[in-house]
Amino acid sequence: MLNGNVSFWYRQTGFPERRPPLDGDLATDVCVVGGGFTGLWTAYYLKQADPELDVTVVEREFAGFGASGRNAGWLSCKIAGSAGTYARKRGREAVLALQREMIHTVDEVISVARTEGIEADIVKSGYLTVAHGAAQLPRLRTAYDQLRHWGGQDLEWLSAPRLAERLRLDGALAGYHNPHCARVHPAKLVRGLADAVEARGVRILESTPVTAIAPGRVSTPFGTIRADRIVRATEGFTSGIEGERRTWLPMNSSMIVTEPLPDELWKRLGWEGQELLSDATHAYTYGQRTADGRIAIGGRGVPYKFGSRTDRAGQTSADTVRALRRILTGLFPDTAEATIDHTWSGCWPCPATGAPRSATTPPPASVSPVDTSATAWPPPTSPGGPCAICCSATPPS
Fold it and tell me: Which domains are seen in the chain, by residue range?
């Protein structure tokens, strides 16, 4: 079992070849700080709106290193947070309009992937949320009724027999289906999007940690970027920027993926539609059937660390792996003997600079894949020299 190494998705695709970092001061019209989905989609649509605009994306690792390249692979229409809270502030019609835009966005992403030739294992067959215990059933019904109230009129309630036509889960009592969701391979999608953005003329600077953002100025160890407009798209890594330590709380979420499962097991489970999967437990759970016949499943509930620290190179704890294994076998008892092939979580800060660091090539056989000590892997460019990845400080001895 491999733990960490960014994510299973990158183990499938391989790490991308890094684009050059910033080399001296630079002036640009728009500087987008952060090369994940937020930053890349921003750059994509800015260039679509004004092809003459000079747009620069700055990323301290490689585009898609963070949550964008290690998430659950849900392209979802779900509204983040509480629709009721939004309605109290903006009114019911605003929430309904937001839901319509979220539904449209799923199709828009699929359309862009098709236009740009991005092959990301996309299957739009919606998601299933299930109750597989008596305590979950009223929560499931409440969630279903609320979603319909806030614009989800095409949700379908599924009795246990109807659910079994799609997916046979042990002890499942009921479920509902939302058609506005697609399975994606997140690393393939974000890497393809980065290539598409670059092809439109956007400058992407990788291995370039941003240390501070001020009006009209982005500071890095390699020079200053001056821009008329700055977009901070750092998401969970915002706390690493000067003055922003408590602005944004990094959210922990961890996943495991099985080995490819045999055909006879898939015949027992069904899941031929390859819908995304969640349940009505208190601990948030999500899963997918991957394009190569695995189950990738994860959840939130990992204890938050003091000071909002992030994880180490995608590593997750043994306790979390065991908890996720229990979730997997609780839903799919037939997977009890299946090998867990890979586990991963969020990102970690470089011990020298506070910037994340990861290997661009697999570690040698002499280095454990879960050994992320500063001196183990990747090695510095020279003894006592800069870190081979963030290139801006000497690793600790």
Answer: 2-73+186-240 (3.50.50.60), 123-183+251-344 (3.30.9.10)
pLDDT at 302: 59
* CA 346/CA 7 separation, integer angstroms: 9
Return the amino acid letter for 180: H
pLDDT digits (tens, 9 = 90+) for 349-396: 333 333 333 333 333 333 233 333 322 223 333 222 333 322 233 222
Look at 336 and 127; give whichever has higher pLDDT.
127
- Parallel, antiparallel, or unpaired: how do β-strands 127-131 and 174-178 relate? antiparallel
Whole-structure pTM value: 0.83
In this structure, the strands spanning 55-58 and 26-33 are parallel
- b/e code 197-215 from CB counts within 10 Å (16+ = b): bbeeebbbbbbbbbbebee
pLDDT reported for residue 79: 87
Q: What is the pLDDT of residues 182-209, one digit of tens each?
A: 999 999 999 999 999 999 999 999 999 9
Grade residue 340 by pLDDT with cuts at 50, 70 and 90. confident
